[in-house]
Design goal:
Elements (H helix, E strand, L loop, with lengths): L53 H6 L6 H6 L6 E13 L2 E9 L11 E2 L2 E3 L3 H4 L9 H8 L5 H16 L4 E2 L13 H10 L7 H8 L2 E2 L5 E7 L7 E10 L13 E7 L1 H5 L9 H10 L5 H9 L6 E2 L2 E3 L6 E3 L6 H7 L17 E2 L4 E5 L12 E7 L4 E5 L6 H10 L4 E5 L11 H8 L2 E4 L16 E2 L5 E5 L2 E7 L8 E5 L4 E5 L17 H11 L6 E4 L5 E2 L1 H26 L2 E2 H8 L8 H17 L3 E4 L2 E4 L1
Parallel strand pairs: 1-8, 7-10, 16-17, 17-18, 18-19, 23-24
Antiparallel strand pairs: 1-2, 1-4, 2-3, 2-9, 5-6, 7-8, 11-12, 13-14, 14-15, 15-16, 20-21, 21-22, 22-23, 24-25, 26-28, 27-28
The structure holds zinc ion (ZN).
Amino acid sequence: MPKAQLCTGAGHAEIPGAERTGQRRYTMSLHATKHRTNPSTGARPVLPHPAARPGPRADTMTTTETTPIQAAKPSTLLRAAASLLVVRDGPQGMEVLLVRRVERANDRSSGAYVFPGGTLDPQDQALHLHAAGLDDAAASERLNLPANGLDFYLAAVRECFEEAGLLLAYHRDGEMLAPDHLDAGQQDFLRQAVQRGGPGLAHACAELGLRLAADRLAYHSYWLTPPGLPKRFDTRFFVAIAPSGQVAIHDGMEIVEHRWIRPGEAADPDSGLPMMHVTRRTLQSIAHFETAQDCFASTSQLRDIACIMPRLAKGAAGVRPVMPNESSYAEIGRIDPDGKAHARYELAPGEPVQLSGRVWRVTANNGSVMTGPGTNTYLVGGGARNEWAVIDPGPDDAAHVQAVLAAAPGPIRWIVVTHTHMDHSPAAPALQAATGATVLGRAAPPTQWQDTGFAAARDLQHGERIAIGDDCTLRVIHTPGHASNHLCYLLEEEKTLFTGDHVMQGSTVVIAPPDGDMRAYIDSLAALQEEDLEWLAPGHGFLIARPQEAIRLLMRHRLHREAKVVNALRDLGPAPIEALLPRVYDDVPERMYPVAQRSLLAHLLKLVADGKAVEADGRWQTA
Ligand SMILES: [Zn+2]
């Protein structure tokens, strides 16, 4: 897994090549003025690179963010771009080259420190002939593109030369190019060749016998600018070791400063260096390397590099980019595919969120260790009759009831509950009093932590369908495990399953005997694998994409824990539960032991039911 996947928060993909205007002037050897092909506008023409088209590109993401990205409808063309992390060994350890862009209005990266790089250019195709050690087929395979992958490598090499005066190339003697390979005239020729209107870098390579060292670039990461921004970039980042002997230089116009700096130091917000989040995250991803060689070698080993596309959303901290590993990411992609930034990255109590034409959510203000961000109350309905059902009215909280009533787009006719824990059903009487709705669910079992006052008009049966409207149907699925009376509701028209506490987002469901039953829980998860599902709408947390993947992970997690229980019984049994606990939950902090002990009991009881363990006088052992 590429390290960059651990990153969070990015302003947008690196856009160092965008919006450059004006002439550049360099003052030292091995650097050049930027080649311009459209001086009249000052803008560089953007090669409509095949990789930049949304269609084929979506296919390259099947291993990572398939659903959200395919759901996206980019309103602007993605511009293919390449960025280069040039690293070297400094006195304090590895350093990376940053260049600072000139300050300019209407440029999101104005004044920011970036890595050398920019958009692909038609001339990059002509550079193929002069690439060393990497052909287009191999380059495309590495970038997971059908073709023209080499353009990204060569654009990174070219941009690094144009912006920072460092040319990753082999001299005709096979050595990496050093200043003393070229006399003053040749250096001047090289500089002239890449100036605006000049014959270009390919011509200079041919004349000087240079071959561009594409094989000295290691593919590091892949970012897409969030949807919704006026300019969007499809940027590949590479790592290269600085060519020894060459000296970095900036032009003083487009690039007003350059500096070699330790990546961790640059990424530290206290450094005061203005930069986009993508730059900061990329710096953090290489900060742990001791040497340039380590960084290059490790990056060269990366495979299956995932596309990282932040999405813009709003919340307490204002609008910010949300990363694919954040809990709100999939939901944001669903309700705001075009990046209008109206979706939220946090569950704000009392604030209604429209999840589809048929579904709204209001989160109760009861967040805690056990309830996560608070209990979700869903409103499901609409259609011609505009009638609505409430799924899980929530805790007995007058403010929450008011918020649900205010959020309902039409009359509430049904109140259905997933189960009768105190954070899910106790608001039913107040909501019923206000609406006259019919309450449905299953009666509370006579155990702890139950809403014993819950009174349903009748018990719902597994497989029963509740017709909310002409095209809005909830099917009841009995899912015992977390609670014996637990029901999930499948909105059949949208293949969205309201999971209550059977599946939560981001936390492990508590299975507390006697009402909680691990064997039943795993069976209930397995039964869901037979359903055609597209989204999970949990009782706690955001919408969950790729339901079957999530369910598989939950089952694997439980069976992995069960295997640890069996091993502990084998090694320690017969043993009391207290002796087994630290062994089975060696990955859990001690303060969580009371909760963990209930889960351990649930596992032990399952093993007894499975005939794999026995208990006598409070001591457990394998059967
Ligand atoms: Zn519960």
